[in-house]
Amino acid sequence: MTESENLKAYFTANRRKLVSVKAVEVMAGVPASTLKHFLDNRRGIPEHHLENIVNVLAIIGYQPTREYNIL
Hints:
This protein is 56% helix and 0% strand. It has 71 residues and is mainly α. It has one domain (3-68). Helix 3 crosses helix 5 (47-58). The two termini are 18 Å apart.
C-alpha cells in the first residue's frame, strides 16, 4: 500500500467528521483544499505536501506505512 492509499484509508467517513481536513491543511502549511481535493478523488497529492500532512496527522495517531518512515 502506498502512503497516498494509506492516507485515504485513514480518512473514513466517521474520521472525516471528527478530524478537520481544513485544520490539517493549515497545520501542515499546504495550500487550501489540497487534502480535501485529494480525499475527494479530484487530484493527486504532491510528495512534499504528503510529507507535511503525514507529520501533522502523526500527532493524532496516524500510522504511516513502513516504507514511508519520515518521522
